[in-house]
Amino acid sequence: MFAALRYSLQGLCAAFRHESAFRQELLLAAILTPVAVWLGRNPLEVILLMGSLLFVLVVELLNSALETVADAVTIENHPLIGRAKDLGSAAVLLALCLALLVWVGVIWR
Questions:
Q1: Is 2-108 a domain of CATH 1.25.40.20?
Q2: Annotated domain spans of the chain
Q3: Which of 33, 60, 74, 76 has the smallest number of CB atoms closer than 10 Å to its CB?
C-alpha cells in the first residue's frame, strides 16, 4: 500500500514538474477551492464545485499520461498518435466545460 502511494505521489510530482497545463489547472483549483467553500450553500454544492475541479485535474493527468506514452513510442508525426493526442485534449476541454457548467449552475441558483 505504501509503494502504491509512493508511485502516485511520484506521478503527481512528475505532472507538476513537467506539465504546464497541469500546473495551471492546479493553480486554478487552489484559487477556486476556498471560493467553492464560500459559495456553496450546503455540503453537496461544495462537493460539486470542488469535485468538478478535481475531475479536470484527473482528466489532465490521464491526457498527460497518454501524451507521454505516445511520445515514448515515436517522436515522428503519425496521424493516429496525433489523433490520440487530440482526443485527450478534447477530453480536457469537456472536463473544463463541465466544471464551468457546475460553477455557473451553483452561482445562478
A1: no
A2: 2-108
A3: 76
Q: Which of 19, 25, 45, 60 is catalytic?
A: 60
- Annotate 45-78 with b (16+ C-beta within 10 A) or e (fewer): bbebbbebbeebbebbbebbebbeebeeeeeeee
For the chain, helix, strand, coil in percent to 5 are 90, 0, 10
**Tens of pLDDT along 45-98?**
999 999 999 999 999 999 999 999 999 998 888 999 999 999 999 999 999 999
CA angle 70/57/31 to nearest 5° reads 140
Would you call 60 a catalytic residue per the annotation?
Answer: yes
Radius of gyration of the chain (CA): 16
Which cell numbers in the block locate residue 50? 470542488
